[in-house]
Amino acid sequence: MTTPHLSLLRSEDGSHVGNTIWHAESLLSTNSTLRELAANGWAGHGAAVWADEQTQGRGRLGRTWHSPPGGGLYFSVLLAGVETRLLYCLAALAVRDAVSEAWNLPCAVKWPNDILVGSRKVAGILIEQQPEGAIVGIGVNTNLSWAELVRIGPEAVSLSAATGLDIDHFHLLERLLRNLEAQYIRSRRSSDLVFQDWKTSLVTLGQTVEVQTTREKWMGLAVDVAIDGSLLVLNDKRLVRVYAADVRIRP
Questions:
Q1: What three-state secondary structure class fits 152?
Q2: What is the pLDDT of residue 60?
Q3: Sheet containing 48-51: which strands, arranged edge to edge?
Q4: 210 class by beta-carbon count within 10 Å (0-12 exposed, 13-18 middle, 19+ buried)
Q5: What CA–CA distances, in Å, run from 186 to 113, 198, 200?
Q6: What are the backbone angles phi and psi of residue 247, rounded to the nearest 5°?
Q7: d(CA 76, CA 97)
Q8: How confident is the model at residue 68 (pLDDT cuts 50, 70, 90)?
Q9: What is the pTM of this model?
Q10: Which of 82, 64, 83 is nearest to 74 (CA)?
Q11: Continuous segment of H or E residues that includes residue 110
């Protein structure tokens, strides 16, 4: 093991999500750390890694996830036995519900798994497949001030900025792990139910969107999502499947 300064906060019997929780003040990336723990046999299904800071936090499409000390909740959890498209759905639903239930905030999902409060992004999800299972990385902006959010971008928000409250990270982590467990169980019983719930929560559908890939940028109308999770966008009278792209809602 090369990962420094990890503390074992919890080690319980059972296979529930959150059965094991590792914590560190600072890590390069919680996803990378959990991947190393799993590869060395130290972490199995349901294990989580939580850090107060990430110095090389990652987001979708190779982006950097701004992860200053105390400014957000940064954690990853190992989930086995669920296909990737459903992992995006269940993780997004778990975060949406945790935020809306705890603070009664208007939450929605922007395809594929950005969590919005109003029209601003409060959380993101990165899923990376490994032989031991899928590593689901979740970052939630919690205690960033409006001045700090400006550095991220005009579309960002934090829970403290939205509520005026100081957010307790451990309590939020516990709520998220419980929600992930509940959605994981739902997905094993009825994958279609989870998929349809996620589809219904998508604020993207019915909106004019700007789609940017590594090769091009274009506009269209987001009309539906396919069973594989891809976004169906009507562009110049043809239907285009979008799998991996930056999709922004436009007026």
A1: helix
A2: 57
A3: 7-11, 20-24, 48-51, 72-79, 133-141, 120-130, 114-117, 107-110
A4: middle
A5: 18, 12, 16
A6: -115, 120
A7: 18
A8: confident
A9: 0.93
A10: 64
A11: strand 107-110
